Amino acid sequence: MGRFRTYQRSENKYHNHIITIDKIRFASKGEAQRYIELRDMKKSGEIIDFELQPVFELQPRFTKDNVKHREIRYLADFRVTYPDGHQVIEDVKGKGGYTTPEFKLKFKLFEYKFPDLKLEIVQRSGKGMELFDGSCDREIVLK
pTM for the whole thing? Predict the structure, then answer.
């Protein structure tokens, strides 16, 4: 199992700490813990593979009235591939499960643009990690 290394830095609004495991920097302890779980699941054969920080284009860039608009992208935490071939996209949230208005909008755009992929919210709790399906999650309300 990898070692946690926490970097001292000024307090940020989400109260997360950058963690390094296997020479990979994670934005939070929750992401680092989930990486360790996925790494171990891959070793045991429970999953085929996983990808860190996959990018999904939710809307392409475009020009309207000579004004250029950038694309809208969603950067997930993990893409997990299971032995039966199906994939799940995971986004790790902290204990409170706080989601920004931007994440809520991107969640809806993701669900619309990628109906065949499942986006799960993995929430840290005092007992480890819990998986939530955003559509029925009682703690994280995605209106």
Answer: 0.76
